[in-house]
Design brief:
mainly alpha; 28 helices; globular; about 675 residues
Length: about 675
């Protein structure tokens, strides 16, 4: 009895130690990011001190902005930040050259430029959007420095750009020293998660078509994952030179995921039609997919890839049967090919070698221009209002306030429904930093006489801020503290202690940030219902245009445009709205495929007639032409090419049936709608 109790007591500390390590393990990346943030800020300050630049805090502030929890994101953002910085500085120099002696015209021109950047922030994606925000921010910073002496604009712009580039370079250097491949691992995790979601949902819909309605909500989960997946792809490509050379491989895997989503949507549509394919066809396909266990994808991606290739061979051996069975075969083939691409990408991310794939870069498209226009108007109004207030009140800190108004309205422009919440967090963070900054400014900084002491204070400040910023609890609040800390502390070269300057600076930063929040309240983002309705209406319009006229590059542009709209679809959109958007995507893709794939002249004439009818808003006539073509193909030999044409034609006919009401633009339908 005593021996047993003694053994239990001996094992208890080991269990506690293991539990403690398990609890602390997820916190390690956050601590590493805090140390990385502190090192970047301190290195940027040290370089500016060594070069005897006066406003050292701009370099350190740049380092705080560029340093992000995701390593690849920081490296890629560093490149785009340099581009945005140079463009913004050149734009402001040009405006100063034209309106050097006209303050009102100069302020209005700055507002117009920042408004244009606000349009680009929402219209562009990922790092290009970030560069657009920085172009507006840099222009406002140069304006704040040169408005009192426009004749020295070029010299001051050169200094400011140098300081910003020092901050970027310091951050990139620290990242390179602490780069552990986090971006590659994140992309691999996202790919495995997406593969598991789509394979499970596809099989569930395939095996139990009567329960397909229960799977529809998962479409939106995958659509919401597209944006983070594309961002993680760009970050991983920036992670290493080899992945950069194989960027086409990774981008193609992301594109194939969209193909798999459309295939899943297609079998769900077939399941809703009375008289779905028999049990034998579904059972055969499910048996093939049962060999593909996505849970083993990350552990052995090459073995999973071989299993996908074997599944493709098994699918090719199944006879096509009727049209609906042909659709199921084509959709399952698409899923297996997409999973194969994901397996190859994960193997590449884990260090395997791969043949370089040339994949067309994503076309620059705008899903809906109205949110971008609203963003541009908001930024223009905010900057113009702040400039007017600063000029008419002759506020000495007014130009600096304009810069922080621009930051507050530009940085969250592309956040969608979260915009106001993020702006509130950012404002609260700047207020908290004013309080913390006051304690440091009056209680700590006067007693520091060496750079080592200053660096120690910044490490003790930045490590906790970075630790919280890398977490999930209001990270924007701590981002605001990191960004505003150095300007509030007014760490220059040399450091001057002036209580009135501190309070004026803190009031300027907090006031500018709060003014940006007010602009988000006055001009909020479009409601989710409005955005959803517009995305569907624009997609119907573009399907008609696509059908009415063929143009070079339709396939690339249509994929980019509809993928962008799928990403932009609000989470509040209903399942039916998500399915309609995907159906319109599949409809346009089928039109493009059939135009290029049909070899005989009679078939091309029927497709052309169907496209003309669809472009004129007559889906019933288009459906009749497609049905006639399908009847002719049923009599032809069952070659692989003919099977794929039949599948796309069945998709076209089924989608025209499902979306007949929204595609109909005849006078009778318009009268009914009105």
């Amino acid at each position: 009895m005593n021996s047993l109790s003694h053994d239990s007591l001996d094992t208890r500390p080991a269990a506690w130690s293991e539990e403690l390590r398990a609890r602390l393990r997820p916190l390690a990346p956050r601590l590493v990011f805090g140390l990385r943030l502190a090192a970047s800020v301190c290195l940027a300050l040290y370089i500016t001190y060594a070069l005897e630049l006066q406003n050292s805090f701009w370099a350190a502030t740049t380092a705080a902005i560029v340093c992000q929890p995701n390593l690849g994101t920081s490296l890629q953002k560093g490149r785009w930040r340099i581009i945005g910085t140079i463009v913004g500085a050149l734009a402001m120099i040009a405006l100063l050259a034209v309106f050097a002696q006209q303050r009102y015209a100069l302020a209005l021109s700055l507002a117009v430029w920042c408004g244009a950047c606000g349009v680009a922030v929402v219209g562009l994606r990922n790092f290009a959007s970030y560069a657009a925000a920085l172009a507006g921010f840099t222009a406002s910073v140069v304006f704040a420095d040169t408005i009192s002496d426009p004749t020295s604009a070029f010299f001051l712009s050169l200094i400011r750009v140098s300081e910003i580039c020092i901050g970027i370079g310091a951050t990139v250097f620290v990242i390179l020293l602490t780069d552990f491949g986090a971006a590659s691992r994140r992309l691999a995790d996202l790919l495995q998660e997406a593969a598991g979601q789509i394979s499970r949902g596809f099989r569930a819909t395939l095996v139990a078509p009567g329960e397909a309605a229960g799977q529809r909500g998962r479409f939106r989960d995958l659509l919401r994952a597209l944006g983070p997946l594309h961002l993680a792809t760009d970050a991983a490509i920036a992670d290493s030179s080899y992945l950069r050379s194989r960027g086409g491989n990774l981008r193609r895997a992301s594109a194939r995921l969209m193909d798999a989503v459309l295939a899943w949507q297609e079998i769900a549509r077939v399941a809703d039609v009375p008289g779905a394919p028999g049990e034998a066809a579904r059972a055969q396909l499910d048996a093939v997919l049962a060999r593909l266990d996505a849970r083993t994808l990350a552990a052995d991606p090459q073995r999973f890839r071989d299993a996908c290739r074997a599944a493709l061979e098994a699918i090719e051996a199944i006879p096509p049967g009727d049209r609906r069975t042909t659709v199921l075969l084509d959709a399952t083939r698409t899923l297996a090919a997409s999973l194969e691409e994901m397996a190859e990408s994960i193997a590449l991310l884990q260090g395997a070698r791969a043949t370089r794939v040339q994949f067309a870069p994503r076309a620059v498209v705008i899903g809906d221009p109205l949110p971008a226009i609203v963003s541009g108007v908001r930024v223009f109004t905010a900057v113009a209002g702040a400039a007017a207030f600063a000029i008419f009140t002759a506020w000495p800190q007014g130009p600096l306030a304009i810069a922080f108004v621009a930051i507050a309205t530009l940085i969250f422009g592309a956040a969608g429904d979260q915009t106001r919440a993020l702006a509130v967090d950012y404002t609260i963070g700047s207020v908290l930093m004013a309080v913390v900054g006051g304690v440091l400014y009056f209680g700590v900084l006067p007693f520091l006489s060496t750079f080592a002491g200053l660096a120690t204070m910044l490490v003790l400040l930045m490590v906790p801020i970075g630790f919280m910023q890398a977490g999930s609890w209001h990270p924007t609040l701590f981002l605001a503290m990191a960004v505003t800390s150095l300007p509030m502390l007014q760490i220059g070269n040399p450091i001057a202690y002036d209580p009135s300057a501190f309070f004026n600076g803190a009031l300027t930063i907090v006031g500018g940030t709060a003014a940006g929040l007010v602009c988000f309240i006055i001009l909020p983002v479009l409601s989710p219902q409005t955005r959803t309705r517009r995305l569907l209406a624009l997609s119907v319009r573009d399907v008609r245009r696509l059908a009415a006229r063929a143009r070079p590059g339709d396939a690339v542009r249509w994929r980019a445009l509809m993928t962008r709209r799928a990403e932009d679809l609000p989470p509040q959109a209903s399942d039916d709205e998500a399915r309609r958007l995907l159906a319109l995507f599949a409809l346009g893709r089928a039109i493009i495929f059939l135009r290029a794939a049909l070899p005989d002249e009679d078939g091309q004439q029927l497709v052309t007639g169907a496209c003309v009818a669809l472009g004129d808003g007559r889906p019933a006539a288009a459906r009749d032409a497609c049905a006639e073509l399908a009847a002719r193909l049923d009599e032809a030999a069952a070659t692989p090419a003919a099977t794929q044409i039949r599948a796309q034609l069945a998709t076209l006919i089924g989608t025209l049936d499902a979306l007949a009401e929204c595609l109909d633009d005849t006078p009778r339908q318009r009268a009914r709608a009105s």
